[in-house]
Amino acid sequence: MRDGWQHRRLAHHPVCQSLAVRPNVGRYDLLTDFILECKVQNHQVRKRIFHTRTQCALCRSGRQTPRLLDGLIMCISFLLLSAPVIAQQPQQLDYAAAGSDQEITPPKPNAVDAVGQSAPSAQPESQSKKKKSKIAIPEGIVVAPLPISSPAIGTGIVPVLGYIFPFSKNDKVSPPSTVGAAGLITNNGSRGFAVGGQLFLKENTYKITSAFVRGNIDYDIYGNGIAAGLKLPLVQTGQVFMAEFLRCVGWNFFVGPRFITGRSFITIAPNSESTFPVPPEVGLHTNITALGVRLTGDTRPNHFYPISGTVFTFTSDFFSQGLGSKYSFQSYKTSFNKYWSVSNDQVIAYNADFCATAGQPPFYGNCIYGTNSELRGYTAGRYFTRYTLATQFEYRLVLPKRFGLVAFAGVGGVIPGGSQPSQEAQNSHFLPAGGGGLRFELSKKYHVNFRADIAQGVDGHTFGVGVGEAF
Length: 471
What we know:
Largest sheet: 17 strands, antiparallel
Shape: globular
CATH topology of the largest domain: Porin
Strand content: 35-45%
Order of helices and strands: HHHHHHEEEEEEEEEEEEEEEHEEEE
Distance between the termini: 65 Å
Radius of gyration: 36 Å
Mean pLDDT: 75
Helix content: 10-25%
Number of domains: 2
Number of helices: 7
Number of strands: 19
CATH class of the largest domain: Mainly Beta
């Protein structure tokens, strides 16, 4: 438009020649500049110096009117069409304003130097109020309706609600604390819920963990020996409460007591298996109570998505009839994780787990291979054994749009208890597994991922979902 007929005809107009203009804008673009400013600043009028019909004899003659009307019609049309969009998405303006609420006035000779000054303009108060009135979900809240498909408990959904937060805003040392709740509904009749939390206090001096679980689980246990290939469906109803209190003793190590108590009732679901040996715990109301101790060392910078550091945990629980437990036995578990950052978007993680039981535990008090993600690819309930060992590597890749991929592989095995070493070796199983999964970031602030993994083991494959990394 700079070479258009209106600018050539206004080139020698005395008022146009006397006007000062903004840098990088032609002397004769003032009329066009005003129209562009109308398009952008539809919500207010700027006080600017521009070419007006009252000052220009050429404009008063009417020869400029058609072009000016075209520009104004275009401006008004743009305002009407863009009003809803701008009301929903306010944009920051680039042009300056001497006063957003002032009317347009003809330029004065002593005011021409003020033309073209630019500064960021303020947003309208009405739009600011609309923006502030929107309800914002805190960054620490995690909501995830997790689908579940398990050969052990069926297909259903696990709704999860969690809140990640600093226990004290003045504490810049402690990791963020977590509280949450989860439910379980599957098509085989399993129902349950769990609530729990983990708090870090006094600049990472204390760590308190507590959880309560209640429900009824329908699952299968698998036979071995003469019952190999058979399975028995059970319904277990009960509740468990756990609490532990750890204190930092230096060098990122925590140690402290823990307490577990619960009760259980097991029945056999209707089935056609008559040769499967019935566990002695079926039909009994049982109580279990234990005191224990936990030692853990943790150097991870982020507990939810570690990219470096190590974490070591050793736990021992002592179930005793003297504490009100029906069974007297001991449970020992230890794990070690190590993390390496290959690049900004790639991490390699290593995990090793060992579990052992002693005494006379119920079948569900033994080590259960395939739980706690020590090695994915195996159905929980297929291997109840005295000893388990597993080790695995996992490669993690962060993708754009909050997605990610993982690939993992590992080896493990189970060793049942027995008085004869040859019997233990005969019933032992070497159980490798591998697979991959998809990740989606639920919390960008804490990098909490939703995970979905598919894994292949010796006996078949499994599909599992959860919140947070497997280890």
